[in-house]
Amino acid sequence: MTKKFFVGRQKRSQLKLREYFDNAVAAEKFESRTKWGVLEVPNGNNMTFGKQILNFFDKLEPPGCIPEDIETLMPYKSPEVQRVMRCFYQKFYSDTDKRVFLIGINPGRFGAGVTGLCFTDPIRLNTECGIAHSITGGRELSSDFVYRVIAAFGGTEAFYKRCYLTAMSPVGFTSRGRNINYYDVKGLPAQLEAWMAEAMDIQLAAGAEKRIAFSMGQGENFKYLKALNKRYRFFERVEALPHPRWVMQYRRKRLDEFIQVYIDALNF
Predict the structure, then answer these.
(1) Whole-angstrom distance, CA of residue 55 vs CA of residue 86
(2) How far apart are alpha carbons 7 and 23 in whole angstroms?
(3) Domains along the chain with CATH numbers
(4) CB burial string 120-132: b at 16+ within 10 A, e below
(5) Among the listed residues 34, 26, 22, 36, the one whose alpha carbon sits nearest the alpha carbon of residue 2
(6) Would the pLDDT of 238 be above 90?
(7) pLDDT of 26-69, one tens digit each?
(8) What is the pTM of this model?
């Protein structure tokens, strides 16, 4: 038996989507057909967290409402990125445990924009995650901070057993060769809302801890995530953590203090 739920660009009922997942226990698979393709999501008893996330990224396409002067960062179609992502999710997410969502802004040119993995630059992918690769690139400040947090938490296995790093927009944006955030472009957040809500829904279905989620950033990203959470009820509550890049640029002398802020928040 197969259940199908068609998600359009219009706002849809969050409860309706969850009801379909809850009722899919007896189904062989659940197909969520979005405007970027068909995402097959077997019920959680048969499919790991990692496999569901990989399916999401395999089918992901950029939204069609991007202004002409803005380019998107979409590394997920690269064969090497796909291989690296399979290694990563098989290594750290081959189970059905629920994860705490830490939600950033969108991929950048030196981190997820090249590796496909949030807050993971090519260097940490090799040295910290133990995944050899041929992706070119150097250090990202945000990745530097995040992997200091991961080390303080007990290492990659302990951290990824507990947490999932993602972003409000799974696609990054650049303008004239520089990173930009989804909220930097006037009118773009409203145009992206349904697309981002759909993307978050699918990731949540992989196995989210619904009691709390964290915005990695205390400004516009937090404000927007709170607004979407109020409308779509992704989580029971959303809290903000300092953005990793902000810490590294402006509060580096207090680095240990901010690392502890993250550790304390994640040990709720």
Answers:
(1) 10
(2) 17
(3) 45-61+68-266 (3.40.470.10)
(4) bbbbbbeebbebe
(5) 26
(6) yes
(7) 233 333 334 443 344 444 457 999 999 999 999 999 888 888 88
(8) 0.84
